[in-house]
Prior knowledge:
There is one protein chain. Helices cover 43% and strands 22% of the residues. It has 5 helices and 6 strands, in the order βββββααβααα. It has a 3-stranded antiparallel sheet with strand order 1-2-3, with no helix packed on it. The longest helix is centred in the middle third of the chain and has 17 residues, at 81-97. The model has no long low-confidence stretch (mean pLDDT 89).
Amino acid sequence: MKCPYCGEQESRVVDSRHAEESASIRRRRECLTCGKRFTTYETVERMPLVVVKKDGSRQSFDRAKILNGMLRACEKRPVALADLEAAVDEIEQTIQNSLDREIRTSDIGELVMDRIKPLDEVAYVRFASVYRQFKDIHTFMEELGKILAEK
């Protein structure tokens, strides 16, 4: 690690701690030449994800969009924000763990539906009605029938 004061390459680690909820490691270093101390952070480099939309256009992955969609589906429902954030974390981790750097919006929608169903069935139906673009009441009733059949 290059010293920010003298530019020397050699330093030693004096202290290491987890930072930002264990998402990174904070290291206190001491330059072996000038003796001054400085702090560095070590984080995991994530590969950029690209979302392929229904019309074929591409945009960068934005977890806030997933959270906002889930919040709309859970509006006025007894679902804790922490549960939704944990679900979004799981979805993002699943996407990051896949070997593909591109993911279709339909795949993201399925992941959301898998995570939102155990949290609240009404929110699941709300999300499914928008995601699957229910055309009429019969399509809506079919989805409700599937939920009732699982119980």
